[in-house]
C-alpha cells in the first residue's frame, strides 16, 4: 500500500467550513456544512483521513440509543479515526504540523479515583467521540487534546492507524484475561472485535486460538488474524470441538465478543476448571442466563471489559511489526458523502461485510 506523505504547508490553506455526516434522526444522515473547530491551547487540529464504522455507530443509526446513551440532538458519529495534524495549540510541544496520527477517542477527567488509579476507561466524566452528546469523526476535521493523539510510523497506513482503536479493545481483553504465552483461548464471535482479539492473542503468544462464528467467510478471515482452529456453529458442536482441540481439558481463557447470550453461555462451557472468562460484547439483553453451578464448580474467574486504557503506544508498536495484517478485515471503503450507504450495507449485508472504512 502506498503511504500518503504529509503536506507541511496544509495548515495555511484550511477552509472555514467542512463537510460532516450528521445523524439528524434514526436512519437519516445528512451531509452538512459545519465550522472547522479552532484548537484550544492544549489541542491539535487534525484533518481526518480514515474512520472505521463501528457496531456502536450502527446501533445509534438504527435505534438512536445504546443503553442509557440516547441520541437527543443531531450528532456526528465515528470514533475509530486517523489523520494528519494541520494546526497545534500554543501549549502543545510534543506534536507538530504534518505528523500522521492515530486518535484515542476518550477525553477523561484525570481527577477521579478511576483516572488516578490508572483505569481511566471507567472515568464517569469521559467525553467520548460519537457517544451522545459528543460529536465524532465522520467529518473533515476535528480538534483533539494533544495527549490523545499518537504519531504513527511512516510505514503504517491510515487504515491500520484507524484500526488501532478496536485493536485496543482486543489488547485490553487479553490483558484482563491474563493471557500467557503458550495458553489456549477460544473467542466467541469473529466480527471485527473478535478478529482483532485473535490478532492480539497471537501476538501475545497464545498456542491455540479457536475462532467461533456462524459465518464461514468470517472464519476464513479469522485464520488470517491468528486463529489456529475455527468452529462453524452451523455445522459443529461447540463443546465437542473445543474438547477435541484442547485434549479434553477446555481452554485456559474464553472471550466473548459477539454480544450474544448463547455465546456467553458458550464461554462458560468451553473454559477449563480454574480458567478465566472475559465478556467484551454488549448483549441487547441486560440480563443473560448463565450456569452459576458451572461457574462455581469450575471456579471460573469472570471479568468484564469496558473499552481500554494505556493501549495506544503498545498497539502501534504491535501493528507496526506487521506480524498480523490487520487490514485483511477491511471489506468495504466509502467516501464521506456515501456514509448512509455504508450504514445500510453494514445492516443488510452482514455476510459480506466486516470492517467498513469511511475516507473523508
Automatic annotation (TrEMBL):
Checking InterPro entries in the record gives:
ADH-like_C, ADH-like_N, ADH_Zn_CS, ER, GroES-like_sf, NAD(P)-bd_dom_sf, SDH-like
Cofactors needed by this protein, per the record, are: Zn(2+)
UniProt entry keywords in alphabetical sequence: Metal-binding, Oxidoreductase, Zinc
Record-level Gene Ontology MF annotations: L-iditol 2-dehydrogenase (NAD+) activity
The protein's matches in Gene3D superfamilies, at most eight in alphabetical order, are given as:
Medium-chain alcohol dehydrogenases, catalytic domain, NAD(P)-binding Rossmann-like Domain
Is Metal-binding included in the keywords of this UniProt record?
Answer: yes
What is the top-level taxon of the source organism?
Answer: Bacteria
Residue intervals of the Enoyl reductase (ER) domain:
24-358
What Enzyme Commission number(s) apply to this enzyme?
Answer: 1.1.1.14
In the record, the note on similarity to other proteins reads: Belongs to the zinc-containing alcohol dehydrogenase family.
Name this polypeptide is given: L-iditol 2-dehydrogenase
Amino acid at each position: 500500500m502506498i503511504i500518503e506523505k504529509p503536506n507541511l504547508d496544509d495548515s495555511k490553506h484550511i477552509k472555514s467550513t467542512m463537510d460532516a455526516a450528521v445523524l439528524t434522526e434514526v436512519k437519516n444522515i445528512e451531509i452538512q456544512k459545519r465550522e472547522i473547530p479552532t484548537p484550544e491551547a492544549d489541542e491539535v487540529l487534525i484533518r481526518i483521513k480514515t474512520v472505521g464504522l463501528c457496531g456502536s455507530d450502527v446501533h445509534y443509526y438504527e435505534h438512536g440509543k445504546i443503553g442509557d446513551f440516547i441520541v437527543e440532538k443531531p450528532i456526528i458519529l465515528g470514533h475509530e479515526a486517523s489523520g494528519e495534524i494541520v494546526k497545534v495549540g500554543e501549549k502543545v510541544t510534543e506534536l507538530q504540523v504534518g505528523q500522521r496520527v492515530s486518535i484515542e477517542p476518550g477525553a477523561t477527567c484525570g481527577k477521579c479515583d478511576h483516572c488516578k488509579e490508572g483505569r481511566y476507561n471507567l472515568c464517569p466524566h469521559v467525553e467520548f467521540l460519537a457517544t451522545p452528546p459528543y460529536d465524532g469523526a465522520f467529518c473533515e476535521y476535528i480538534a483533539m487534546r494533544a495527549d490523545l493523539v499518537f504519531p504513527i510510523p511512516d510505514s503504517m497506513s491510515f487504515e491500520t492507524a484507524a484500526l488501532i482503536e478496536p485493536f485496543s479493545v482486543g489488547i485490553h481483553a487479553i490483558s484482563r484475561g491474563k493471557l500467557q504465552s503458550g495458553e489456549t483461548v477460544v473467542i466467541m464471535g469473529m466480527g471485527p472485535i473478535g478478529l482483532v482479539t485473535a490478532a492480539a492473542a497471537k501476538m501475545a503468544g497464545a498456542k491455540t486460538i479457536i475462532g467461533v462464528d456462524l459465518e464461514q467467510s468470517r472464519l476464513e478471515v479469522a485464520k488470517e488474524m491468528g486463529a489456529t482452529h475455527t468452529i462453524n456453529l452451523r455445522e459443529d458442536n461447540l463443546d465437542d470441538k473445543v474438547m477435541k482441540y484442547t485434549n479434553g481439558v477446555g481452554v485456559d481463557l474464553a472471550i466473548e465478543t459477539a454480544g450474544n447470550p448463547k455465546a456467553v453461555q458458550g464461554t462458560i462451557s468451553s473454559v477449563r476448571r480454574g480458567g478465566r472468562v472475559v465478556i467484551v460484547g454488549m448483549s441487547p439483553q441486560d440480563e443473560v442466563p448463565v450456569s452459576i453451578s458451572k461457574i462455581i464448580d469450575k471456579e471460573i474467574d469472570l471479568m468484564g471489559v469496558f473499552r481500554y486504557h494505556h493501549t495506544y503506544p503498545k498497539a502501534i508498536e504491535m501493528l507496526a511489526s506487521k506480524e498480523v495484517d490487520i487490514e485483511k478485515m477491511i471489506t468495504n471503503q466509502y467516501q464521506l458523502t456515501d456514509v448512509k450507504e455504508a450504514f445500510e450495507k453494514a445492516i443488510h449485508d452482514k455476510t459480506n461485510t466486516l470492517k467498513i472504512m469511511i475516507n473523508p
